[in-house]
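Quick one before lunch.
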Amino acid sequence: MMNENKASNRMWGGRFASGPDAIMEAINASIGFDRKLYAQDIRGSLAHAAMLAETGIISTEDEKKIAHGLNTILSEIEAGKFEFSTRLEDIHMNVEARLAELIGPAAGRLHTARSRNDQVAVDFRLWVKEELLRIDVALGGLIEAFLVRAEEHAATVMPGFTHLQTAQPVTFGHHLMAYVEMFGRDRTRVRDAVERLDESPLGAAALAGTSFPIDRHMTAKTLGFREPTRNSIDTVSDRDFALEFLSVSAICATHLSRLAEEIVIWSTSQFGFIRLSDAFSTGSSIMPQKKNPDAAELVRAKTGRINGHLIGLLTVMKGLPLAYSKDMQEDKEAVFDAAETLDLMLAAMTGMIGDMEVNAAAMKKAAGSGFSTATDLADWLVREAGLPFREAHHVTGRAVALAEERKCGLEKLALSDLQAIHPAITENIFSVLSVGNSVKSRTSFGGTAPAEVRRQVRYWKKRLKRDASLEKKG
Ligand code: ARG
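Model of the arginine complex:
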């Protein structure tokens, strides 16, 4: 490939040891990353060849040779014996060139009624579909880990926050179940994305379809797609499935990142709500007392990569005229990296949730600070003394101001002091001023009462079972 003349071009050759051929090869080749698609590429080719034989476009004899050659290549790649070549650009041409070496001229018939444009779309859709199904399983595992901890801590009281300021006491189980809702929605988004991408591009050819009497329904079925795509131009132009994969991943990563941030906060010595296991934290090389939540911090940080990939591919796609343009080759690294990153984040978070040690005493102590039962006092005035809520709010504000002045909690104020603020207050008020009673009273559907949290856990256990049976059907 060396071209001495061109290599010495002073305008643009300096950075490269060899000539424009080498530069072109470097910018053009995708084999460095799309080799990941080898199994899907071979599956697609096997399905295509079988269909070509079935429809009489190629002979059964040639199809046998092709299938045998492709299976040989599959084992060569899996045994690490296959030599990938950048000169052959991508996975499709690497496989086809090796097929020609193995079986001779029959190899040339495989690409009848097909183009790399529909081929790459098939390979990539198959890969993304498999990855979505892996994420679906991982999300199921994460939700399960949450349910165990939520059930265990259905009655553990902690402060609930708004603006990261103590708002009202909640149960830790309830807080954990909030994440179950988020990851549950992520799972439905994953399944929706699978539904939408479940159409086979094979047979769209370069962009216009083909004059050969192919059977696209047959290849769709062989490859496990629900049906073939309907418009050949759209088929080779479309990367919605990749964008959707990235957006589903970005939303899921964002949920993981919020959880990671809470884990970082909860595990500080100031909060002390949880202790991460040694497996998911590291020590400091200089400060012996430290235990750093590195895994959580990295989950938080890696979200940036996934969000970046989404914006990256949206930007690649936004200016492309129909149909295929080589720009679209940039879809793969974004998706591969996002997938690998998300898999790791989900695994790390499942481990952290399962292993974390919960300090219920610290949570309870914090739950009582910051006048967290002020709303309970106001609600009591409405319920027991018949005050309009706005007035009750005002009366409570005065009680809080007094407690602040006395530097004590609401429950430590004397009954006479409270009665001085409003005469309708009785001894009974103290039954709602404790954090335990506060959470127990919030029995509204979806509320934080332990009984309600246990009901939510039961709902999700059933739903996990139902979703698992869907998995088997799919
Ligand atoms: N490596 C290419 C890609 O990933 C395959 C399709 C090439 N098609 C073409 N017309 N050059 O997009």
